[in-house]
Amino acid sequence: MTASFPPPFQVSTAAQAQALLDFTSGVRLLEQFMDPATPSQAARALAEPANRVTSHVRKLTAAGLLRVARRHGTRVHDQVAAHTFHVPRVLVPLS
């Protein structure tokens, strides 16, 4: 049986690109949500304060990069919106 992956996510706003490309809260954090996980689980895995991770998770969710996979009472398990993200070059700031 083959795993079913969501289609690639087309990044369309500067806010999405910034959230995704931010090293500390973007890809590194998104990797923790390849499978459904809570912000607390991600914080432990990254050895980061839970309140900081939760704040970044909210930003990633608002940008559409994370989605709620399931709820158990007050516990929310988030998961990446896609396994592949396409970021147009025009949305990537030059350093």
Automatic annotation (TrEMBL):
InterPro entries documented for this protein: WH-like_DNA-bd_sf
Record Gene3D superfamilies: Winged helix-like DNA-binding domain superfamily/Winged helix DNA-binding domain (1.10.10.10)
Name by which UniProt lists this protein: Helix-turn-helix domain-containing protein
Organism: Deinococcus sonorensis
